[in-house]
Design goal:
Keywords: Metal-binding, Molybdenum, Oxidoreductase. This is Sulfane dehydrogenase subunit SoxC. It contains ten helices and 24 strands. By secondary structure, it is an alpha+beta fold. The chain has a domain at about 290-410: Immunoglobulin-like (Sandwich). The strands form six sheets. A five-stranded mixed sheet has the order 5-4-13-8-9. Strands 6, 7, 10, 11 and 12 form a five-stranded antiparallel sheet that branches. The protein has a five-stranded antiparallel sheet with strand order 19-18-22-23-24, with no helix packed on it. It starts with a helix and ends with a strand. The protein binds the ligand Nc1nc2c(c(=O)[nH]1)N[C@H]1C(S)=C(S)[C@@H](COP(=O)(O)O)O[C@H]1N2 and molybdenum atom (MO). Molybdenum atom binds near residues 95, 141, 143, 243 and 244.
Length: about 400
């Protein structure tokens, strides 16, 4: 058969050549028959490509979802469509308190001043000549999953809508320690006030020691220059710390001996505990996981079918050590498989094969990090924080699979 088909293909080529020359060749009939059996894309050459690639038009349903509930736009990653651990740049979640500034790189600079021996100014050209490092890390908004923390009844929404203020990318940039050491730290230097060049000058005070250890001035995300949405042309990146400290459109670092108590940190990012005490400068995002498939608003089509339960786990304090999955609402747990690579402060993919019986089932995942920190149940999380608190919500996410196959968010 192979030889036969090959001959027909040759005949077709002759035919197409003849058509181009304006004459009808001998292979015309055979080629006609063949074209009728081939998909259109194999009969005629396809369309032109574009200079900067785009996803297939057939994937147009895979989009970030917009929420304006908090008064500023929050774009959420559709985690239920993500496979593997890396979020495509076009789907990275985004939070903009004052819009997305359009910054021309030749007009942008990063200044370092305050308790330093030599104040410095870095334009893009200068920064690009420094040695860079690349690291795969998640980034999560402190307010991710707020609806599950606050809503008295579980909202029937997709995973992306419920918990999509988290993404994972490879970040490339200059370790901030290189720049701070070049500026030379004066005695008494303890904190750095980090400011963005957007309207409202989003700013946070961060402890110097941690910045020297971990911070990057990130310039690239998954191999391309940061997108405007992620802080083009540069942002601070602090692995494992709450989203808002990762100041986008970064333009100023002031080394100080004390925190500045900026409007952002005293207003938005303090956390009231159940006993009335207030937690401030709670930087780390805690261990968390979600089942991405099956997840909210999906439907299982085949009762008694085989399904792979798959999900993502991450911890702001280190690597994921273990993920357990329950299919009976937390009565029993099974250890899921972790997929390599299991990286420090990055998404880790886990999976577990599952045979659905067609009965109602409640699926849950519970992650433990390398420091032994375990994801709390919702009731445990609620006990720790005040009624109206919602930042740093990392409780176990539960999905109910109904007998008709529909999957919905539930509290368990
Ligand atoms: N300059 C500036 N930086 C900012 C913000 C902002 O509004 N302005 N939003 C912060 C918040 S609240 C979060 S969660 C992260 C989100 O980063 P992303 O938009 O790249 O996902 O950026 C932080 N950095
Ligand atoms: Mo955020």
């Amino acid at each position: 058969m192979f030889v036969e088909d090959n001959r027909v293909a040759m005949a077709r080529r002759t035919f197409l050549g003849a058509m181009a020359a304006g004459v009808t060749g001998a292979g015309a009939q055979a080629a006609d028959k063949l074209s009728a059996r081939l998909p259109a894309a194999m009969v005629q050459p396809g369309g032109a490509d574009v200079p900067y690639g785009q996803p297939s038009s057939h994937e147009a349903h895979v989009q970030r979802t917009l929420s304006t509930q908090s008064g500023f736009p929050v774009w959420r990653t559709p985690l239920q469509h993500q496979h593997g651990i890396v979020t495509p740049n076009g789907l990275h979640f985004a939070v903009h308190h004052n819009g997305v500034p359009d910054i021309a790189p030749e007009r942008h600079a990063l200044r370092i001043h305050g308790l330093v021996n030599k104040p410095l100014r870095f334009d893009l050209e200068r920064l690009m000549r420094y040695p860079m490092v690349s690291r795969v890390h998640f980034l999560e908004c402190a307010g991710n999953s707020a609806a599950n923390a606050l809503s008295p009844t579980a909202l029937d929404e997709s995973l992306g809508e419920l918990a999509g203020e988290v993404s994972c990318a490879e970040w490339t940039g200059v370790p901030l320690s290189y720049l701070l050491h070049e500026a030379g730290l004066k005695e008494g230097a303890q904190w750095v006030v980090v400011e963005g060049a957007d309207a409202g000058s989003h700013s946070r005070s961060l402890p110097l020691e941690a910045l020297l250890k971990d911070a990057l001035v990130a310039l690239f995300q998954n191999g391309e220059r940061l997108r405007p949405s992620q802080g083009y042309p540069m942002r601070l990146f602090m692995p494992g710390w709450e989203g808002n400290v990762n100041v986008k459109w970064l333009h100023r670092l002031e080394v100080t001996d004390r925190p500045a108590f900026t409007k952002d940190e005293s207003g938005l990012y303090t956390q009231v505990l159940a006993d009335g005490r207030i937690e401030r400068f709670a930087f780390h995002m805690e261990v968390k996981s979600v089942i991405t498939n099956p997840s909210g608003r999906q439907t299982l089509l085949e009762p008694h079918g085989f399904y792979e339960i798959s999900g993502l786990a991450w911890s702001g304090r280190g690597r994921i050590a273990r993920v357990e999955v329950s299919v009976d609402g937390g009565r029993s747990w099974v250890v899921a498989q972790l997929h390599a690579p299991v990286l420090d402060r990055a998404f880790t993919r886990f999976s577990l094969p599952w045979q659905w019986t067609g009965q109602s089932a409640v699926l849950m995942s519970r992650a433990t990090d390398e420091h032994g920190k375990v994801q709390p149940l919702r009731s445990e999380w609620k006990r720790r924080y005040a009624m109206h608190s919602f930042n740093h919500y990392n409780a176990v996410q539960a999905w109910r699979v109904r007998t008709d196959g529909r999957v919905e968010n539930v509290y368990a």
